[in-house]
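Key result, reporting period 2: structure in, sequence out.
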C-alpha cells in the first residue's frame, strides 16, 4: 500500500490567536491554546477554512491553479496553498479497512516549493469526505505528546498519526470513521512573519 496524492486546496491562514474551539476546556481557562501549536493547518474546514471543490468527494482540486481560481482575489493574501496525500485506510472502532478511491485521481505533481508540515488524523473514509480534525476542533491535541505534536497542530510522526486515527475511531471525539492525511504547503504562499521558523521535511513513505 502507498500514500496517494488526492489534491490541492487554498485555505485561510490561522495563527494560534485565531484558534477558537467549541469544545469545553477541561481546565476551565477559556483558552484553546496548546504548546507547541502556533498555527492551525488541519485538514478540517472548521477552523482553517478552505475554498472547497464541491464536485470532488474530498473537496479538493487536481492542481494549484484550479484551487487558486476558487479564491476571491481580495482573499488570496490571507490564504496558503496546500496539497494532501492520503493513506488509503479508514479506521472504525479501532479496526482498519481500505478506502475505495472509486473516482479518477488525476492530481498534478507538486512544485518544488511545497514542504511537508505533518500528518492529520481526520474524519474521512468510504462514507465520509474530510470532516473534523479533533486535534484542532476538539482539543484532541492534548492527547498527543511531545515530540509527536508540532507547531502546525499536526502530528510530526506518521506512525503516531495512524495510531491517533485508530484511537479517535474508538473514542469518537467526533462521530465517524477516521483516516490519516499528510499535509503539504507551498512555501511561496505561507509567509507569516511573526511565526518562528522551523525546518520542514521532505517525503518518505509509510513503512
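The corresponding designed sequence is given below.
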Amino acid at each position: 500500500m502507498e500514500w496517494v496524492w488526492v489534491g490541492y486546496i487554498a485555505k485561510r491562514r490561522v495563527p494560534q490567536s485565531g484558534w477558537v474551539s467549541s469544545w469545553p476546556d477541561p481546565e476551565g481557562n477559556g483558552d484553546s491554546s496548546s504548546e507547541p501549536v502556533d498555527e492551525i493547518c488541519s485538514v478540517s474546514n472548521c477552523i482553517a477554512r478552505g475554498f472547497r471543490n464541491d464536485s470532488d468527494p474530498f473537496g479538493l482540486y487536481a492542481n494549484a491553479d484550479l484551487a487558486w481560481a476558487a479564491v476571491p482575489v481580495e482573499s488570496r493574501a490571507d490564504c496558503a496553498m496546500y496539497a494532501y496525500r492520503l493513506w488509503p485506510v479508514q479506521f472504525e472502532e479501532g479496526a482498519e479497512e481500505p478506502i475505495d478511491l472509486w473516482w479518477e485521481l488525476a492530481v498534478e505533481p507538486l512544485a518544488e516549493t511545497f514542504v511537508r508540515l505533518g500528518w492529520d488524523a481526520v474524519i474521512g473514509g468510504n462514507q465520509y469526505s474530510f470532516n473534523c480534525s479533533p486535534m484542532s476542533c476538539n482539543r484532541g491535541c492534548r492527547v498527543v505528546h511531545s515530540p509527536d505534536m508540532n507547531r502546525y497542530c499536526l502530528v510530526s510522526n506518521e506512525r503516531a498519526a495512524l495510531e491517533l486515527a485508530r484511537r479517535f475511531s474508538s473514542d469518537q471525539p467526533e462521530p465517524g470513521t477516521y483516516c490519516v492525511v499528510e499535509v503539504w504547503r507551498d512555501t511561496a504562499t505561507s509567509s507569516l512573519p511573526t511565526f518562528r521558523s522551523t525546518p520542514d521535511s521532505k517525503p518518505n513513505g509509510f513503512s
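Residues 4-189 form one domain. The radius of gyration is 16 Å. This case is discussed further under Risks and Mitigation.
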